[in-house]
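Q: My labmate handed me this sequence with no annotations at all. I'd like to see what the chain might look like in three dimensions before we decide whether it's worth expressing. Could you predict it?
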Amino acid sequence: MEIKNLMLFRLGLLILALNGVSSATLSPTGINYEVVALMAIKLNLRDPYNVLENWDSNSVDPCSWRMVTCTADGYVSALGLPSQSLSGTLSTSIGNLSYLQSVLLQNNAISGSIPATIGKLEKLGTLDLSNNTFSGEIPASLGDLKNLNYLRLNNNSLTGACPESLSKIGGLSLVDLSFNNLSGSLPKISARTFKVVGNPLICGPKASNNCSAFFPEPLSLPPDGLKDSGSKGHHVAVAFGASFGAAFFIILFMGLLVWWRYRRNQQIFFDVNEQYVLEVCLGHLKRYTFKELRAATDHFNSKNILGRGGFGIVYKGLLSDGTLVAVKRLKDYNIAGGEIQFQTEVETISLAVHRNLLRLSGFCTTENERLLVYPYMPNGSVASRLRDNIHGRPALDWTRRKRISLGTARGLVYLHEQCDPKIIHRDVKAANILLDEDFEAVVGDFGLAKLLDHQDSHVTTAVRGTVGHIAPEYLSTGQSSEKTDVFGFGILLLELITGQKALDFGRAANQKGVMLDWVKKLHQDGKLSLLVDKDLKGNFDRIELEEMVQVALLCTQFNPLHRPRMSEVLRMLEGDGLAEKWEASQMIKTPNLRSCDNDNPPQRYSDFIEESSLVLEAMELSGPR
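A: Here is what I predict for the chain of 625 residues:
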């Protein structure tokens, strides 16, 4: 503790000494003041899973650190650490990261007060501190964040009044202060969405605020004319009419004018001016031009293809600044229902930020094209690496396979239980689990099924998924849910254990039926060692093998109601509660998922595949990378 305090003291002296440093990243003595600030943040946080392990105080360049994103000229622009089980407090040194545009720390257990120094971050557009245990008052200094667009402080323990200073920010899209202990009257905040429910002293029976009738203030017209375009057009028109009390025909006129400018400029989703497209909003998503991405992929050269699938083709790309990316060129783009619908779904996907989810970097939309841009994953997909060897040893040894199962589970837990709105993947398999430079699992292609399949419910006429991974109820009815993903995850566990694709299993193993049926038979016969990938040459933990098979069989029960939630799956993989769940599952009979008058329900997964009326339409959503 004394050593830590001494380090904090020294860092404090450095920060004080560097307060007068110019905008250059390095001080005259060669010290990177952003490194100093980030190290102070690290020291104040408790990091049980060592996600900040490569944050090094001896480094002069933090741009290669995990969870840190930089601008093209080397300044820290984004700090993204959501859902990392972090606790401790947030250092006031965050205020020294002058170029920060996005701070995502949601779904942790960070406590203490929100640093008032955040108000110094003039470029900040996104601040998400939701679902932590922050206490104290909301700093009035947040009202100085003139570029703030997205503010989430919900589900904390904040007290006091909502600062009047927040009413000074003109470009807010979302302010969520719900589920705290705030009190007092509410300022007039100009945000499209302003949430305060769950604050008893504000919304309770004795409070002066009528939260049920509380609506956000209309957005005001930007001073330099119609700067906002696309989906903001309607709000701008209404705001103009409300501000000046004009008659209905003026509102209609302004709405048509904004719509005309939107169609002319073909710019959606972000504020645009003549020089550049703002890159920071809802997780610093960037809009690329088609010309940029065409050049990056060498005119979509077939030599740069990383994978093909139901959504389209993925290309390796090299941007002009030297950044490697993966560019997904969507097919059937017109199914998305137009640019506004596409923008809405891209926005939803961009808000899902987690260590084990593939982060969406940007997008491109033209009259004829829809493209998504992701970071390039140097180790490809789990499917592509399962059969690889490095110096005669499998690229994915048993330890790595166990880590992949845990990382994938954490990503799916976030999508199902922590993301708002929740996202169902609908195609969980080894080809969609990518591997970063450290072979950490990164779930890809989440949300894309919904992006290209807009329906009023989850019921579809064509099953989206990959044969061998599709849950029985999805095959039978076309109805998907988070339990559909749980089934897919169970099959993924079997792929990790066997080293084989579920789709190719019958041919590769010269077996009748599908992988799941074979695994059930071997488990009943007590011959689990026959399951294990022969490339591992016996180098695996037999206790962990038994546990992983049991988890896989729990996940792939025919009745979705009997399958565990992904959070329960994660706990079982971590060694908590598996024995009880397994014992309870042995008391359950195989359910009848077909019509009520059928007395002979399928006993094998292959029976569901053979008898499904929808399986002929099933497609593989995404191929290997």
